[in-house]
Specification:
The protein is an all-alpha fold. The chain has helices at residues 11-29, 32-44, 49-63, 65-79, 95-112, 116-126, 128-143, 150-163, 167-179, 184-193, 200-216.
């Protein structure tokens, strides 16, 4: 399937992003009946369990622990008893925080490009320790985790921020998705998946920004780490 930039995007990849975006949105809003149907549909489509779990772990950054805990319960209702997930192997002791900070900063720079330091400086002025939380926890611990590609995670972020109607952050992560190598068609697939869930103005805003970014030509760093 061609993207708006003319680059071909495999249909299976678009469907996967759409399914994960719908799941993320339903989880964030606590729409458990819709979430259950989405999980069952994902199972029929053979979406890997690991990808579903990673999607729900990302939801906690946007909607908090309670919504994520509830969504994990719905996943088990949809799939039956689940095998325990293997935790990510991280360096032990004090080296862990340093590793997460480096990994988080690398992804943060990739998402925000030349604006990264300005964004961090603003956050640091507002609340100094929050800057460390963003780099180490949000980016290092969650968004830079293996399991989903950065481009996929940024598409999910665009969908989540649409349902939460947060245009400033939505614009930043839409640009971040393109910088991480997402085709415009992948971002559109995520937005289409949350139509009827997200406010219409949020989806319209994102589509207008997407068209503008494509026309402006946001530099891309590639879709794989």
């Amino acid at each position: 399937m061609p993207s708006r930039s003319g680059r071909a995007v495999p249909g299976g990849r678009l469907r996967r992003i759409a399914r994960l975006a719908r799941i993320a949105a339903c989880a964030a809003l606590g729409r458990e009946a819709d979430l259950l149907r989405s999980f069952r549909s994902a199972r029929r489509a053979r979406v890997p369990l690991a990808a579903l779990r990673e999607t729900l772990l990302q939801v906690y950054l946007f909607a908090g622990f309670p919504r994520t805990v509830n969504a994990l319960d719905v996943l088990e209702r949809a799939r039956g008893p689940l095998p325990a997930a293997s935790p990510e192997r991280l360096p032990p002791g004090a080296a862990r925080r340093s590793f997460l900070r480096r990994r988080g900063r690398a992804l943060f720079d990739r998402v925000y490009g030349g604006d990264a330091q300005t964004v961090l400086d603003r956050i640091g002025r507002q609340q100094k320790e929050f800057r460390s939380w963003i780099l180490e926890d949000a980016y290092g611990k969650v968004l830079a985790r293996p399991g989903l590609e950065p481009a996929e995670r940024e598409c999910l972020a665009v969908a989540l921020l649409a349902v939460l109607d947060l245009p400033r952050q939505q614009a930043a992560h839409l640009r971040g998705a393109l910088r991480c190598g997402a085709a415009p068609g992948a971002v559109e697939a995520a937005l289409a998946a949350v139509e009827g869930i997200a406010p219409r103005r949020a989806v319209a805003f994102a589509r207008a920004r997407l068209a503008g970014e494509v026309e402006a030509g946001v530099p891309r760093s590639g879709g794989r780490r």
